[in-house]
Amino acid sequence: MAETPESEATTSADNTHWGIAYLREDLQDIRLQMREDSKELRLQIVETNKLIGSRFTYLITTMVAITGILIAVIKL
Predict the structure, then answer these.
(1) Among the residues of 1-76, which ranges form H helices?
(2) What is the structure's pLDDT at 1?
(3) CA separation for the pair 72, 69 (Å, rounded)
(4) How far, rounded to the nearest angstrom, does the alpha carbon of residue 67 sit from its chain's CA centroid?
(5) For 39-71, how does the pLDDT look when each residue is reduced to its tens digit (9 = 90+)?
(6) Is the pLDDT confidence value at 2 over 60?
(7) Nearest 5°: CA angle at 51, between 46 and 55?
(8) CB pairs under 8 A, 24+ apart, for 14-21?
């Protein structure tokens, strides 16, 4: 009976070691996935900024053209 606690302690320590190893692997997988997701998010932000920039340019050009037309009509 004296051997039972020692074998249980060894088994428990082995299980703890494997449990920590699995958790470490899971954490590494999560970190990798977060890096990939953040890269994708950055690319989407860049694309969105380009789209907003082109629409802003179009809006300003249209407003300048309409203002020019209004000034021309008022002067007539």
Answers:
(1) 3-75
(2) 46
(3) 5
(4) 42
(5) 999 999 999 999 999 899 999 999 999 999 999
(6) no
(7) 145
(8) none
pLDDT, tens digit, 9 for 90 and up, residues 12-46: 777 788 888 889 999 999 999 999 999 999 999 99
CA-to-CA separations, 13 to 17, 19, 23, 53, in angstroms, rounded: 6, 10, 15, 59
| 44's tokens | 């989407």
Distance of alpha carbon 60 from alpha carbon 66, whole angstroms: 10
- What the block records as the tokens of 62 is 């249209």
Query: Residues with Cβ < 8 Å from 50, sequence gap 6 or more?
Result: none
Q: Is the dihedral of CA 38, 40, 41, 42 positive or negative?
A: positive
